[in-house]
Structures are given as structure tokens and as C-alpha cells.
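Protocol step 4 of 6: structure prediction from sequence.
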Amino acid sequence: MKVPRISEAEWEVMKVIWPNPPCSAHEVVAALAPSKAWSVGTIKTLLNRLHSKGALRFEKVGKSYRYHPVVTEEQLRAVETESFVDRVFDGSLSPMIAHFARMRMLSDQDLDELERILREGRKRP
């Protein structure tokens, strides 16, 4: 299955659906409209785009639609991360990690976690 690329607004919709699928269009609107100041039409357009891209499927229940995620957050995160690293850091992880380490104050916990990840990476064949 090809995992689609999605927009920032579409990510917001998926963040509502992933934790509690299936979600009705009404539930998505109720979750997003107040904080995003998006109209019902905008949110329904985003749901339709996500369906067209293959990120969501829906079932019709009476007069409403219930949306189910087809792709996981982890799958979409992997696609977006790969695209970001390729575009911004020419596919190289070292400059990316160095950039983020310089730009943000890393806590001892962050550094411990990075060290653990690097050690695990060395163990893989």
C-alpha cells in the first residue's frame, strides 16, 4: 500500500480520528471547528480529500458517514520524515540531528534517549 502525503490541515483531521475510530463527520467538526475556526464545509472537504488520497475509508450509517483511518500515524510520520530529510538535509541524518541539537536546549533525558537510540542503531546488522 502506498502511503499518501497529506497537508497540515489534513493531519489535524487525522489526529481527531486516530484515537477513537470510527468518527462521524459531526464528531470531527465538533473537535476542530472551535479551535481552528474552520467551517463545516472546510472540514468535510478535508475528509473527502483524505478519502480520495486513501488515508480514510468511510461507511454510511443512516444519513451520516463514519470515517476509519486506513493508514496509521506511524506510517504517515515515516513518509513525512523521509520527505523532510530528503528535501532539507539531502537525505542525511547526521546534519539533521546536529541541527536540532544546536537549535534546542536538550535535556539530560533527551540526551539519554538519543544515546540509547544510537546504541541500538549500532547493534542492528
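Step 5 (inspection) to follow. The helical segments are 8-17, 25-36, 40-53, 73-89, 93-103, 108-123.
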